[in-house]
């Protein structure tokens, strides 16, 4: 059926042909002309009227019925059309150093603060470590280490005990462009820091203040020199009064994080022991708990001051670095090379595997890489990085059959001698 407008106006039927005798001719006598009309004239006119009426009705019904115009009218509300699906919510932002969700991503624009924290047995438990976004353990000398805590998203009121710096610690402050908080330093530290342009707050050679308050205070409940603490809010006020930048562009994550349900790779290792050279009792042991690595020392579990609970990082990176004693240094201080590249042990999810680390220059960021060259893939949570002399002894073992003393490799433990290089 063709859709469209109806037919034009119906024609008015003309008068029926004359029924009189001899239309258009001279009349004949009535007796000779029968009085009968043309048998085809009236029925044809009637048929035309009926067809015209039917076409008009068809056009009217076509405009209103299911055979109407090709363009359908817009659906009205409630007409049964399915509503549009709402867009999926965006995933929450995550901390690029921990992989944990953040409610305030603007905190990532805060300038990092790096604090040199005492790790002598008399300095434990330390304050502020659980608030750090990343923790380094770095050798000093004599088997003693320092903990360098990097704070980006949190600014604890109490961090410490704060202790002295070494010249190679500056490589870490430089790569993060951090405000560096320390309490004194070695002669090599002071010889170098004046050339770096680092923004630093020193609690020994100065008494920095912010807003009239001291950045560093001593806790009378602890013995010197293991009792000096820093307030990061006051430190940042002091930095602002000195005209230092307090914000920085967010950094890309140096890590990749496993998705939910993704299995870690590597050999199963439930126990790791790092023997720091120079002291028989200067070791640290980690036990895999199923959720993290519980940290222990020769003096017992290493706990957080705030909670009393053992420190339990989610991931461990053991970065084997070249180290040697500085010739002629009476204290046996070390030369530790953090720029270069070398061997990396990656402990995550109860598994251990090898990778590589790279740092192109003292100011360049460190890259922690899997064996295939991609960023290390870790569990979400805190990561501790250990800068271990390449000659150090490291033990790794599977499910424990013996508690062991930690002073000698436990039975069945595998010794991982360092083979790091430049």
Distance from N terminus to C terminus (CA atoms, Å) equals 87 Å
Number of strands: 25
Instruction: Compute the CA-based radius of gyration.
Output: 44 Å
From N to C, what is the helix and strand string?
Answer: HEEEHEHEEEEEHEEEEEEEEEEEEEEEE
Percent range for β-strand residues: 25-35%
Indicate the structural class.
alpha+beta
Give the rounded overall mean pLDDT. Answer: 84
Helix content: 10-25%
Shape: globular
Structure annotation, total helices: 4
For the biggest sheet, the summary is:
11 strands, mixed
Unreliable stretches covering 5 or more consecutive residues: 1-72, 402-413
Fold and architecture overview:
This protein is α+β, with helices and mostly antiparallel strands and 422 residues long. 12% of the residues lie in helices and 26% in strands. A hairpin with a 2-residue loop joins strand 19 (340-348) and strand 20. The two termini are 87 Å apart. Mean pLDDT is 84; it is low at 1-72 and 402-413.
Tags for this entry?
six-stranded antiparallel sheet; 4 helices; alpha+beta; globular; 26% strand; 422 residues
Please outline what is shown here.
The chain has 422 residues and is of the alpha+beta class. It has helices spanning 41-64, 169-176, 187-196, 232-241; strands at residues 113-118, 134-139, 145-151, 179-182, 200-202, 209-210, 213-214, 216-218, 228-230, 256-257, 267-268, 271-275, 283-288, 293-297, 300-301, 315-321, 323-325, 334-336, 340-348, 351-359, 367-370, 377-378, 383-389, 393-397, 414-415.
